[in-house]
Design brief:
The protein is of the alpha+beta class. It folds into 2 domains: 62 residues; 342 residues, Porin, CATH 2.40.160. Helices cover 21% and strands 42% of the residues. A 16-stranded antiparallel β-barrel has the order 1-2-3-4-5-6-7-8-9-10-11-12-14-15-16-17. The N terminus is likely disordered.
Length: 438
């Protein structure tokens, strides 16, 4: 025999009465007006919906009771079951990561071809409570890291975030500087081409991270703003005998949170607007004294600013960026470095313009052919230190890149491009890459 609880029996009776009432109403339909019939049906529908809601709530309550009864009993659940459940929900680690593999073949000399596991990155985030979380990333570059190999193992990010209110957050730790479009969004699925563009690697070093504290907020009009105080570059790390400073002036003197000198701090401010669908506009400024109180260095101020725009009308993806850097009071430092091949530039800059078209393919694939032109000058001028001693400014390097990104699954991209260099055609090359992010 099937037994019913009093509440379930009441619901069953009400449903039966509603059904009988509906039947009675149908037998009297000939005598009733159309308005009366519609009124009765609406009333009956409301009653049935209320009964259905009560029945659903009763089922949910019974299921929860059964689950608690089947769960193992322990001291924590007996003393504070609600707190234990909340703690268990918080204690979950979210894993993420990305990686890129590439093949590079110079068009004039195949002996210089290389294949490389460019990056392998694993990240984890952990939420301590509804307002506090940790974000971290560990990166391996070039597959093997040792004293005899070219690879590196590095902590790319390690910061704590605390929500102040629904639109403002505080950040403390090792985090990426919000400069340009690539530095914070550098996974291979987020940019066109096998390798990151030259402007946002040579002028804005990628990935640029510092130890510090920052505030981030958003507005209802579509503006995200960032301000922060961090460790800065260390000009005393400049190696005048190496070409590293020519490749990236700031990249050669960054500290990356490794026993970073902090006698002088730097700051940043950034704003990005996305209030109009398909349009993104942004700018940032990073500055501070980078002499770090070291002997022979005094009041060497860095100012790096950039502005960028991105527009995605339909299947098109159009973007452009300009960045300019300046280091003050380099003359006295360069006087001590005279005779070395690479002195410290006073100014450096770069810009690019890029266009891509994202075409939908069968099986949810997308093909995005693109073209990019960029101009980079890592030493556009030097401070005057005397006739015959002041280095000449470098000629700008123009790079044209054409190719495509083929997305074969969510988070998986195959890339192919050709790069042409105006200052040295011997550097022209074909690149093939595979990237993923999850």
């Amino acid at each position: 025999m099937i037994s019913f609880s009093p509440r379930r029996a009441r619901i069953a009776r009400c449903l039966a009465i509603a059904a009988l009432t509906s039947l009675g109403a149908s037998t009297q339909a000939a005598a009733a007006t159309q308005e009366e019939i519609e009124s009765r049906l609406q009333a009956l529908a409301a009653q049935v919906q209320v009964l259905r809601d009560e029945l659903a709530a009763l089922k949910a309550q019974n299921a929860a009771t059964a689950a608690r009864a089947a769960a193992p009993v322990n001291a924590a659940s007996m003393t504070a079951p609600a707190a234990a459940v909340a703690a268990e929900e918080r204690k979950s680690v979210d894993w993420f990561g990305y990686g890129e593999l590439n093949y590079q073949r110079p068009t004039d000399d195949s002996s210089g071809s290389t294949a490389d596991v460019g990056r392998f990155v694993l990240g984890a985030s952990y939420r301590f409570d509804d307002r506090t979380r940790l974000v971290s990333e560990l990166e391996i570059e070039h597959a093997i890291a040792s004293s005899e190999d070219a690879g590196e193992i590095e902590v790319e990010q390690a910061w704590l975030e605390r929500e102040i209110n629904g639109s403002t957050f505080a950040k403390l730790g090792l985090f990426l500087i919000p400069s340009g479009m690539l530095n914070e969004s550098h996974e291979p699925t987020r940019y066109y081409g096998v390798f990151r563009n030259f402007v946002e690697t040579a002028i804005i070093p990628s990935t640029w991270r510092e130890l510090g504290v920052a505030l981030q907020g958003t507005t209802t009009s579509g503006v995200r703003w960032d301000v922060g105080l961090t460790t800065g570059n260390d000009l005393s790390k400049w190696d005048a005998g190496s070409t590293e400073g020519i490749e990236s002036p700031l990249g050669s003197i960054h500290q990356e949170g490794q026993l970073a000198r902090a006698g002088d701090l730097s700051g940043f401010v950034a704003a990005n607007y996305t209030g109009i669908p398909g349009l993104g506009l942004g700018a940032s400024l990073v500055g501070g004294d980078i002499s770090q109180g070291q002997p022979g260095f005094d009041n060497n101020k860095l100012a790096l600013w950039e502005a960028h725009a991105r527009w995605t009308p339909g299947a098109w993806d159009l973007s452009a960026l300009y960045a300019h850097g300046h280091i003050s009071n380099t003359a006295s430092v360069n006087l001590r470095l005279v005779g070395n091949p690479v002195l410290i530039p006073e100014n450096f800059y770069g810009w690019y313009a890029q266009a891509a078209y994202v075409a939908e393919l069968p099986n949810a694939w997308t093909l995005a052919p693109f073209a990019r032109f960029e101009r980079v000058n890592t030493a556009s001028s030097y401070a005057f230190i005397g006739a015959g001693l002041t280095p000449s400014a470098l000629d700008a390097q123009d790079v044209t890149t054409v190719g495509f990104n083929l997305n074969i699954a969510p988070g998986v991209v195959v890339k192919l491009d050709y790069q042409s260099f105006n200052r040295n055609s011997g550097s022209d090359r074909i690149d093939v890459g595979l990237g993923y992010a999850f």
